[in-house]
Amino acid sequence: MYVQTILETKGSKIVTTRPGETIEATSRLLTANKIGAVIVADEAGKVVGVISERDIVAAMAAHGVRVTGMRVEELMTRDVVTCRTSDTVAEIMAVMTARRIRHLPVIDGDKLLGVVSIGDVVKHRLDEAALEVDSLRQYVQSVR
Are strands 16-17 and 103-108 parallel, antiparallel or unpaired? Predict the structure, then answer.
């Protein structure tokens, strides 16, 4: 199975923020959309970073309440690991596990197509397993 399948199932809603946005506004964006990370894009829509709840919590521990006024570009991860629609679910699972990443932007060239989260991957794997169990159950019943 491929990343494209996950995007087709979940849809392609993409939540982004800008590097100059405040952490306070970005925290509200995360909460309003019930997501754990947001893609940071420049004016042209090119991915320049990712900022997560974990980044914000770590900054709160280091800087206290001052963090709310800081800009996204001060805390975001700049070395963004991405994937393509042609990558397999097994490949991105391996990357997410090895790199301890929970969100992968899906890119085609410089174009952002969507975001795949670890939750999306787990849901996909569970759906796959349920389909396999159902298929085996039907096969066993037909052999009887």
Answer: unpaired
CATH at 34 = 3.10.580.10
Q: Which range of residues forms the domain containing residue 54?
A: 3-143
DSSP labels for the chain?
-BHHHHHHHH-----EE-TTSBHHHHHHHHHHHT-SEEEEE-TT--EEEEEEHHHHHHHHHHHGGGGGGSBHHHHSB-S---B-TTSBHHHHHHHHHHHT-SEEEEEETTEEEEEEEHHHHHHHHHHHHHHHHHHHHHHHHHH-
Q: For residue 26, what are the CA distances in angstroms to 34, 69, 122? A: 12, 11, 26
pTM of the complete model = 0.82
pLDDT tens, the chain, 144 aa long:
899 999 998 887 899 999 999 999 999 999 999 999 999 999 988 999 999 999 999 999 999 999 999 999 999 999 999 999 999 999 999 999 999 999 999 999 888 999 999 989 988 777 776 677 777 777 778 877
Domains contained in the chain, number: 1
